[in-house]
Fold these 2 entries.
Entry 1:
Amino acid sequence: MNILVTGSNGQLGNEMRVLSASHPRHTYFFTDVTETADTQVLDITDREAVSAFVGANKIDLIVNCAAYTNVDKAEDDEATAMKINAEALAVLGSQGVKVIHISTDYVFSGEEHVPCRETDKAAPRTAYGRTKYEGEKMLLAGCEEAVIIRTAWLYSSFGNNFVKTMIRLGREKEQLGVVFDQIGTPTYAADLAAAIFTVIESPVWHPGIYHFTNEGVCSWYDFTIAIHDLAGIRNCRVLPILSEEYQYKTPRPHYSVLDKSKFKKTFGVEIPHWYEALGRCVKSLSC
């Protein structure tokens, strides 16, 4: 197949590029809004540009890793977030090819007490969550063959993320306060990329909505303790604090665990535990 990967300069896009070397029978076109040595420029909100690119390169499948992910900034500029997270999905879904799209746990309220299933009612509480949910609906309206994968707490050896920040702060500071009343599952972008390739390589195409994170649950406090332990950081004291003490500009989900049963059953896979996955990422950072 000829596969277009959008948002290729981000965490997941970079992991897709790395893993593509293990799937050489496909031809890949890596794009982003800015050009690099490894990516071409493509504005996914530009219908004419996308149609021309898909046609010229005979694209069979689009993997959309592009997104407006700054939760706080989205509150102040929901129009831009809507353009990238939603309106662009109407563009991608109108190309007459299969689409794999990455969505988020933020489509839910975060007030649940059990892991969210794909059939649970969406109830986003933020501009980011609203725009991502609108994107899901726009994609499904235009592309019956779409696969939507919701994920959460994404990190990688690429880009800026919580793992890298906690390693840096752990080496700079003697003490950190990290919230303990937000529960979720850290997801290594390399494992999410592997899940995407599982969908791509499946002998049967299974359209629909799926959930994927690593296994297990923890708080941001627990996650930080694990990061420091695996990175060998011993001289920074990590203290548990309440969300209200951190004073978030935008509400964060208190419980955003996703039920992955559908993905595991459909594709016959086992998913690594978050601690084991974190160990692989930290090792790749040479900490």
Entry 2:
Amino acid sequence: MYYYQAIVQYDGTGFCGFQWQQGIPTIQNSFNEVLKSLIGAKVTTMGASRTDSGVHALQQVVKISSEIGIECSDFPQRMNVILTPQIRCLSIRPCTGDFRPSSDHLSKEYRYFFTNQRQRPASTLRFIPNIANQLDMNVMDQCVKKLKGVHDFRNFYSQGSNVKSTVREIYSCELVTINPHTIFPTDSLFQMPQDLEMCFQLKIIGNGFLKQMIRHIVSALWMVGSGKLTVEEFSELLEGKAGELKKRKVAPPNGLFLFDIKYQLP
């Protein structure tokens, strides 16, 4: 067998997440179909992160196992000709057979983008959702600063995945205002509204994340910012104490981006 590491970028709109599912449109389904058509032999893939329905990725890492060797120099271009425009293969390089993208990482970085305006046209919400309730960003920032460190996130995830522990370590976390066009240029897969020059960005880096964990965190921060949850109550939930937070809705998926994954250099 031959083994490769691919970097894949995608707009998750309309897809049922990354993970392969029988008869359901997923990123991995589409990626595998194009791989098989080009290689003409048995091929399997393994992703670093099972992003949920509607979630995007700037740098998803995918391990390819193939019975036939791949000429890496032009293979991404050949794939991109066939792939749906919502998926791009950025690069492919050889890797070892024991490489496991989902567990060998040093850190994962996600970013969540949103605006806080009374209203925005529906046509501008593809990548940046809007929350209309007025938010107190200073109070939200107090909670963001508490996220750094080791915590039991059992109040901040959705059931449905087998996990041995709900404890995760957050290496860094910040809530800032940014111009989305400085991150997503005009030739990007992610076309931002031309007149949108400011939005909020939650940048969070950790050793791993639970199912919908970041969307739960964002939703809780919105509750704090709108006065529905106090900083003290947020802190108690972050300590793993039982609470009613799971009854709320998670933040929309379209604002969430798998931004980067770091591995130890070979």
